[in-house]
Amino acid sequence: PPSGNKPGTARVLRRSLGDAWLITRAFALKTAGSRPADGNAVFFNGLLDDATAEAYAARFFADSRKGLDLSDYQRSLPRWPVDAAGAWAAKPAGLRSLVVGCAADFVVDAEAVAETAAFMDAEPVVIPDCPHDLMLAPGFAEGACDLVGSWVTS
Fold first, then answer.
1. Which of 2, 36, 85, 125 could, after both became Cys, cross-link 57 (CB 3.0–4.6 A)?
2. CB-based contacts of 130: which residues, under 8 Å, 6+ apart?
3. Helical ranges in 77-109 per DSSP H
4. What pTM does this model have?
């Protein structure tokens, strides 16, 4: 969201210390790659069977070993104006936007989706019952692809 991750992190902390610890553990300590149950909970809301959760954990583990070049990543981000607090100050003119949220997202809450949509001057599209990783979650990938495809071609 335009205000950054800090407000969302604060909301998760207020919602549940257990949820905050699970998210922190899965991302910062990379347990999504070493504990299949953590990745399943955070990304898929526990929808995966054990074998599929283990397969994704192996992929998360492999990805986590690559590292992230933050300098390169920062250079690739849009250079939008920011205010004194570091939040985006203005949407680039003429940018067409699709903002998609997942109603059952364990990581990105409804407030973050609404804030992003308002900033981007877009109506948020919220997929009911969908977990964080909508493109990989069982039963959601085809609908997500159709949603994006219809937006791109409209």
1. 36
2. 102, 103, 104, 105, 137, 140, 144
3. none
4. 0.81
